[in-house]
Amino acid sequence: MEKSVSESSTSALSEEKRREIAQADARLRKIDDFTDVDRIYEELLKSLDHAFPGEEHSLVKKAYQIAREAHKDQVRKSGEPYIIHPLSVGLILVDLGLDEESVAAGLLHDVVEDTIMTKEDLAEEFGEEVALIVDGVTKLGQLNYVADKMEKQAENMRKMLLAMSKDIRVIMVKLSDRLHNMRTLKYMKPAKQKEISQETQEIYAPIAQRLGISKLKIELDDLALKYLDPEAYQDLARQINLKKGERQEYINSVVEDVAKHIKSSDSQIEASISGRVKHFFSIYRKMKNQNKTLDQIYDLFAVRIIVSTIQDCYASLGVIHEMYKPIPGRFKDYIAMPKPNGYRSLHTTVIGPKGLPFEIQIRTVEMHRVAEYGIAAHWRYKRAADGKKRRADQGDENEEAEKLDWLKEMLEWQNDNANNQEFMSLVKNDLDLFTDSVYCFSPQGDVKTLPKGSCPVDFAYAVHSAVGNRMVGARVNGKLVPIETKLRSGDQVEIITSQNSRGPSRDWLNLVKSTQAKNKINQWFRKTFKEENVARGREMLSSYAKQKGKQLPLYMKPDILETVMTKYGFRDWDSVLAAIGHGGLKEGQVFNRMSEIYEAQVKKEVTDQEILANVEANQKKLMKINPAKGVVTSEGMDGITCNFAKCCRPIPGDEVVGYITRGRGIIVHRSDCHNIMNLNEEDRQRLRELDWNQENAKQKSFRAEVSVFAEDRPGLLGDLSMVFSDRGISILSIHSQTSKKGKSTITLSFEVKNSEELKAIMEKVVQVRSVIEVERTRG
Q1: d(Cα 690, Cα 693) in Å, to the nearest integer?
Q2: Residue 204 has what pLDDT?
Q3: 474-507 pLDDT, tens per residue?
Q4: Which residues contact 29 (CB under 8 A, 6 or more apart)?
Q5: Are the C-beta atoms of residues 541 and 591 closer than 8 Å to each other?
Q6: Helical ranges in 267-389 per DSSP H
């Protein structure tokens, strides 16, 4: 992709300012594939010497040694040593200007997730600061395959947001981690490439934009496009390349012309002037939104003028508007009204030579640094002249806090929206709406940034939730207007309130655009009707338990309730019931969680003696159950027959339990088998913990069964069969049923060696076209 295609300097800025501009313009370093590990490490140390001269970097060196040892037996999908990934993340963090604690955390960010090291181990070795950052980046434990995909994503997002609120460096490490993963995505399977790119485009690139880090945002967007729409990406690259020479010649002439006029102006402005092509995703989005071809998009590049002072910014704007005719409505003053992420600049679009429009951006050197590095440009820990670390002053902290108001809002949503799907929808929607904003004023002159298409109701809730809840009307630019009126940048909005207001209307949810307003309106309804929702939720939870043949009071232990409240982010049990009552949480979701905790407690309480009291034998030595099979073991069960359950079909790698029957020995079940989960209290006394004999298990094959849910289509069974035949696995039985709505449920039975092989097969099956979900049968 073309970047800086032309550059010129006038009677120029000082040497120091030119260095600052060059540093801000420098791309984040990219390491070539299969580069020698020691060479990358040396480059990292050289970068640290340049960033923090005179220091030993002992923390980073120690982190590297531990990370290299922890990952020594691991390789990436490309076949490279795994340690290359954390080293590359560390280099990106240095380029972003982060401190040594962040770089150490970048080197260690996968050791908790992928090795036996724990957060406590890291805290002991590197201190709580580094441990907190690593823990914030570390994903939660693996949840059930496929079915819990949304829950997994939501819970990881909740954890990351909470960690970000404690230390913003968490997201800087996560973004650097995601950038390197995107750079090496070509080694992943196509389905995984799309999945990761989709998440990058919906979550991580917008977060980078929220933080004002355009370097990260631009590269993440372009890389995501490369895998989400590869044909469009390659075609766009080809078309842009075709006219590269012609375009460069045009930009050179514009830059030279602008430099000449700036230099000869009465203001004697010192400036650095450059021209650069806009990035792929920006052009692609404009083509899609405007339904145009590349030939119909004229403003493909921008000219950037960087000066010393704000006064010079406006003086340069005057020179430009004398040179070229400005396009009405295309001037934006982000210096007077900065974007929420701190971005400041003057933007104007003009008609250039040959009648071609192009954009000009005018900013100071400091504004340019903030535009490229965002929140990292005002780091909480700054370096004093002597090189020692000190806290940023109060003004810097207040400025940083203002830029993270959106993060506070998202943290509030965690409490207000326990339903994972609703929470993720709010997060994605809010990040997406941020890309296009309008700026409106209160009568006192306060600026409120709102999504494009917002109405006075959005403005009211941006002022305060109490103002929105008591709103009865609005004036825009001094005139009474309907509340559904679309606001435009520059509008002055006055909200009319009344103490007699009955609160918001549900119709407002269809009018507002901002996620904040929608959330506050929903919150009002939840609080106002909380008692009704609590009663309804209690009844729904009790009814669900009865359907399962359970008595709810049995599961209402304080420690169980506390665990569930913590899981969903509520402070009291009534709030959980209210969430069930208004639909924010599913009663089955909550009760199943309670049941899991209860069953785990019961399992611990049942001792070996209580189990053995139900059988005649009471021996203490370790023996194999069912020597004919020889694949599961337990203590003190000599001479008892053992067979595998046909309902859940356990295989090596599964957590298993034995059920002691009357006269038929022990039946081995998976611990999540429905038949085991639904045992009454008396029958639970017959359960016995079992272990796999891995050596004997390797010699055998085990029957497994999965259910595939798919959109019915011709050739579906054939495509599924290919998955198995490619692996040399025979399907033992197959049963298919199709609903009137065209949904197929296909149950397949086959033999595997262990749960790892089964998981690999399921991953292949879910990639088959029209397959929605695949899961193991549970009895």
Answers
A1: 10
A2: 86
A3: 999 889 999 999 998 778 899 999 988 888 988 8
A4: 91, 92, 95
A5: yes
A6: 280-290, 310-323, 365-373
Phi then psi for residue 491, to 5 deg, are: -65, 140
Closest CA to 219 of 371, 10, 1, 50: 1
Per-residue DSSP letters for 114-168?
Answer: HSS--HHHHHHHH-HHHHHHHHHHSPPPP-STTTTHHHHHHHHHHHHHHHHHH-T
pLDDT in tens, 153-197: 666 666 666 667 677 888 889 899 999 999 999 998 988 899 899
Residue type, 256: E
Cβ atoms of 217 and 208 within 8 Å: the answer is yes
C-alpha to C-alpha distances, 541 to 188, 341, 661, nearest whole angstrom: 43, 43, 33
Contact 521, 468 (CB under 8 A): yes
- pLDDT mean over 328-354: 87
Query: Which pLDDT tens digit goes with each residue over 97-122?
Result: 888 999 999 999 888 877 677 888 88
Percent of the chain at pLDDT exceeding 90: 19
Neighbours of 629 (CB within 10 A): 16
412-418-419-421 Cα dihedral, nearest 10 degrees: 40
Cβ atoms 104, 57 nearer than 8 A: no
Active site residues: 113-114
Q: What is the mean pLDDT of the chain?
A: 80
Residue 567, exposed/middle/buried by CB under 10 A (0-12, 13-18, 19+)? middle
Which distant-in-sequence residues (6+ apart) come within 8 Å of 27 by Cβ?
3, 215
By the 8 A CB rule, do 678 and 549 touch?
Answer: yes
Q: What share of the chain is helix, strand, coil (3-state, %, to 5)?
A: 50, 15, 30
Distance CA 114, CA 72 (A): 12
| pLDDT given for residue 623 in this prediction | 33
Position 68: which residue type?
Answer: R
| ∠ Cα 18 21 22 (to 5°) | 85
CA–CA gap between residue 544 and residue 322 (Å, rounded): 73
The type of residue at 212 is G
Going by C-alpha positions, the residue among 109, 30, 94, 115 that lies closest to residue 64 is 109
* Amino acid (one-letter) located at 493: V
Q: Which amino acid is at 286?
A: K
HSE on the CB side for 736, CA within 13 Å?
13
Distance CA 459, CA 473 (A): 12
**C-alpha to C-alpha distance for 444 and 341, rounded to whole angstroms:** 23
Is residue 656 within 8 Å of 690, Cβ to Cβ? Answer: yes
Per-residue pLDDT of 538-563, as tens digits, reads: 899 989 988 888 888 888 888 888 88
Q: Where is average pLDDT lowest: 178-192, 431-445, 713-727?
A: 431-445
Q: How far apart are CA 397 and CA 57, in angstroms?
A: 26
Strand stretches in 199-249, DSSP E: none
In 3D space, the residue among 271, 268, 297, 274 whose CA is nearest the CA of residue 284 turns out to be 297
Q: Which two tokens stand for residue 124?
A: 């002991």
Instruction: Give the tokens for residue 232.
Output: 């469009």
